[in-house]
Design goal:
Length: about 675
């Protein structure tokens, strides 16, 4: 990365101190960096474009001027950044004239930064000329000095720094380039022969494009393999500033800038009818989708699998799985060659969500459709805004024959090099050797220290609900009768919803009388007798109520039984109306049984020896999917000899006590 250039641009922000808040520095530096880059790219052809513009009388001049600029854009203003510094008095008007001289595609990018408002603000603060002068005289962003790849790094570094100053989430905007190179390398690996064909063409898409790093990496990798390879890039980005950078980057490269769109990929998909050969994405980690909930739920319910979200919806606090479903909906059919997807997730999509939940159902659909090919665990402290472990998922509908019905897990957590200087939370990086090694492990598809191969249904399980019978004893003791006041149906007897005050008062009075009648009837029962059979006690209770000439509704009868009951393992089993054992909800438990195991055998082996009266409620059986990645690569580490550890603790304890004693001695002195 060209850190010298990035550092110098960063220092220009010092000019803004006092007139701008630190959180606002990026509003100035980012658009002027883009402007400087555009100016530098057009520098050699600018005079010829201006001259040609004066001689053309056609309404559509663009084709002629583009041919001269040798770019997808041009500028017909007489000014350049250098010439703007010749007149400090008219700097504002001349700069606006210069910006408006750009072709519409370039001008709209600058306007996405709200650059005119920044020009006015800088001018009022007497800073505009100084900022323009710094960029014009001291910053060299020409293609000869800064390659397109380096320019991407500069943009990303600036965004990271400004985001940290304003307490924003910098990592939402971009992914470390070495992570992208790994993703692209694995994504392209099975298609090497196809990509190296002189006539190779493909479409690459990113629904959360950020600054365009993933799209750029795809183009660069294909060019390394085949200089004639044609990769058409497509993307959509929600953040207006990063969208502008992505758009300018692709425009300068001449690679599909018109296919980069601003907006929300879920609610305003700008590429609805497009399908893609390759897709890459780093969706925001743990970002809720509540703002778009109504739209997404409506599509899921109305369109089902004909739409994008038929498999299920994740919890509202994390919309990462929505991006993957959105991308899967844009796969080419197998008959058209199929598609390959690379997406970065945190650990949550691996296991969050119980059987039947949205996440589990999404995993189930992806795996049962045989779309999940590989998951690569990356080292921690690899991203700018988080130190957590991350995972690259490779999803495809065109698995090779040997991979069909299989899922490959690769443990890449030990593949890293520590950075000399951290960047935010990023303290580790992948070297080219690490990328090559992980790609080779992926391609070999052989079990080993860092790789394991599983059948699809190795990650499937049955969640079974185990019930145990309800056993209660009953007693009409004073203590248990008092519990009746804890039962809402009983206390509600002395309430009324009537609007008429007289009617309401009459109902309350009648309810209070019924409460007292019930309490008296229960108190008249023999409170010393303990009943261990519910049916027997109900018979006694009915007789007591009948004798007191009380008629109660079923909900009141149930409240009485609840108040007078206690769980008792020695009591008879309570039966339902059909004579079947009634389950005790407090003893209800669940078991997670691998799909490859026989459920009855498992219950007989793991459950019944300990609770012989348990049974499965088959109606509650659910199929779930989870991928407990770390379990498969767990390495036991010896903690040391217990006696030696105890001696070390005792020695340390004595030293601490001695230090404390010495401290008090010093104070007394």
């Amino acid at each position: 990365m060209n850190t010298k250039t990035s550092d110098f641009i960063w220092k220009i922000a010092d000019l803004l101190r006092g007139d701008y808040k630190q959180s606002e520095y990026g509003d100035v530096i980012l658009p002027f960096t883009v402007l400087c880059r555009l100016d530098s790219v057009l520098k050699d052809t600018h005079e010829a474009v201006v001259a040609k513009n004066k001689t053309i009388h056609y309404k559509n001049k663009a084709p002629f001027l583009i041919a001269i600029s040798k770019q997808k854009f041009y500028n017909v203003s007489e000014f350049t950044l250098i010439s703007l510094t010749n007149d400090a008095v008219l700097i504002r008007d001349n700069l606006i004239d210069y910006i408006k001289g750009f072709s519409e595609n370039a001008r709209s990018i600058l306007e996405s930064f709200d650059i005119y408002a920044q020009i006015d603000r800088l001018d009022k603060a007497n800073l505009l000329y100084l900022v323009v002068q710094k960029f014009a005289d001291d910053v060299d962003l020409s293609p000869e000095a800064v390659s397109n790849n380096e320019m991407g790094y500069i943009f990303e570094d600036l965004i990271r720094r400004f985001s940290e100053m304003s307490n924003e989430t910098a990592g939402e905007h971009f992914t470390p380039r070495e992570v992208i190179r790994l993703m692209v390398s694995v994504l392209f690996d099975p298609d090497m022969e196809k990509i190296c064909d002189p006539s190779f063409m493909a479409k690459l898409y990113d629904p959360a494009a950020g600054t365009g790093g993933m799209l750029s990496a795809g183009i660069e990798k294909a060019a390394e393999l085949n200089e004639n390879a044609l990769i058409e890039v497509y993307g959509q980005e929600l953040n207006e500033k990063t969208y502008a950078i992505c758009k300018s980057d692709t425009m300068i490269k001449g690679k599909g800038y018109e296919n980069i769109h601003l907006g929300n990929s879920f609610t305003d998909d700008a590429l609805k009818r497009e399908k893609f050969h390759y897709m890459l994405c780093n969706p925001p980690f743990g970002v809720e989708w509540k703002k778009y909930e109504a739209f997404i739920r409506d599509e899921a319910e109305d369109r089902g699998y004909r739409g994008r979200f038929g498999a299920g919806l994740p919890r509202i606090s994390d919309g990462a799985f929505l991006f993957l479903q959105h991308m899967i909906s844009k796969m080419l059919s197998v008959s058209e060659g199929g598609s390959r997807i690379g997406i970065v997730f945190n650990g949550s999509p691996l296991f969050t969500g119980d059987a039947g939940s949205g996440e589990s159902e999404i995993r189930r659909w992806i795996i049962e459709q045989d779309l999940l090919e590989t998951i690569i665990a990356l080292p921690d402290q690899l991203f700018y805004n988080t130190g957590i472990l991350t995972y690259v998922w490779i999803v495809t509908n065109c698995k090779s024959a040997i991979r069909k019905g299989k899922i490959q897990l690769i443990d890449g957590t030990s593949f890293f090099e520590r950075m000399k200087k951290p960047l935010g939370e990023k303290r580790k990086c992948l070297t080219e050797q690490h990328i090559d090694d992980l790609t080779r492990i992926y391609g070999a598809f052989l079990p080993g220290e860092h790789c394991q191969i599983f059948d699809n249904d190795d990650f499937a399980y049955w969640k079974v609900t185990m019930e145990r019978p309800l056993r209660l004893n009953f007693e009409a003791s004073e203590e248990r009768i008092a519990r009746l006041w804890e039962q809402k149906p009983f206390t509600n007897l002395a309430t009324s919803r009537r609007r008429d005050e007289n009617t309401a008062a009459a109902e309350i009075k009648a309810g209070e009388k019924l409460q007292q009648d019930i309490l008296q009837a229960l108190s008249a029962m023999d409170g010393d007798v303990l009943y261990k059979n519910r049916e027997e006690f109900i018979g006694v209770l009915n007789e007591a109520l009948k004798k007191a000439e009380i008629t109660v509704k079923p909900n009141i009868r149930k409240a009485i039984l609840v108040a007078l009951a206690e769980r008792d393992e020695t009591a008879d089993i309570c039966l339902d109306k059909d004579g079947n054992p009634e389950p005790d909800t407090e003893l209800r438990d669940t078991e997670q049984i691998p799909v490859k195991q026989d459920i009855e055998e498992y219950i007989g082996r793991e459950v019944l020896p300990y609770v012989p009266d348990a049974w499965e409620d088959v109606a509650k059986r659910k199929k779930g999917y989870e991928i407990p990645f770390t379990r498969y690569f767990y390495r036991y580490e010896e903690v040391g000899d217990a006696e030696s550890t105890l001696r070390d603790i005792e020695t340390l304890g004595k030293k601490i006590q001695a230090d404390i004693a010495a401290l008090f001695e010093e104070r007394r002195d």
